[in-house]
């Protein structure tokens, strides 16, 4: 069966509410905030320089006061300060000032319970044999949730979250196809309540979020390395390759980073090119830039 046939089969067998459930009022508000950020990002890029608050608000058809309230509610800092985190130059500054060399972290070891900003993160990796069965025997529960980066499709097993897909750039259908197509033999149930505590912990930074990392052994090694990169810092694909003991596998590392199924919690958005370029991002480059800006602003607030 080819990829298109697999995706069609996945969509045919998907619960009817996988794509049709209406987001809550909170989710709608979060999505609206993200779209404001997305439009602001485009305006700032087009200008090539910092835009005064009044001008930026006018271009977005808002009053300066309303625009400032939205930004402050979303990220915790003013639009004037936030603009510096949205520029492309900020990526290069991150690499120069907050570049984490992973070999040191690797030498220190990684326990089963990691620390990610204010969140306790517990993770459990699937065995190679389980991965080879493409999800057979697994029940994966899913639901749509609000996030600081727009609407997110969350998936989880009994052990923890196994998928987070951001739909603002690619849409719900593409997000569902991508995630469900990774484990075509699994049984999918629409049950957002069962995974809601983990999702809330992930984005509110409080409590404990559990991860069930489903991937090939090499991919899991790459994802474990990403978990060592602190919030507000970045690393490079080549650093990751060295950290996992495969210095020549930079291209394979990039592929594994791109296949990370639990975006944001496994922080693939913190991986950059050695040149300071952002590289790609599976859920859209604007989402990656927004995540880096959001984390940087909070780290310095």
From TrEMBL:
Catalyzed chemical reaction(s): a 4-O-methyl-thymidine in DNA + L-cysteinyl-[protein] = a thymidine in DNA + S-methyl-L-cysteinyl-[protein]; a 6-O-methyl-2'-deoxyguanosine in DNA + L-cysteinyl-[protein] = S-methyl-L-cysteinyl-[protein] + a 2'-deoxyguanosine in DNA
Start and end residues of each HTH araC/xylS-type domain: 38-134
Gene3D superfamilies: Homeodomain-like, Methylated DNA-protein cysteine methyltransferase domain, Winged helix-like DNA-binding domain superfamily/Winged helix DNA-binding domain
Keywords from the UniProt entry: DNA damage, DNA repair, Methyltransferase, Transcription, Transcription regulation, Transferase
Superkingdom of source: Bacteria
GO molecular function, one term: sequence-specific DNA binding
Entry EC no(s): 2.1.1.63
One Pfam family hit: DNA_binding_1
UniProt key word DNA repair: yes
GO process annotations (BP): DNA repair; methylation
Family from the record: Belongs to the MGMT family.
Protein name, UniProt field: methylated-DNA--[protein]-cysteine S-methyltransferase
Organism: Roseovarius halotolerans
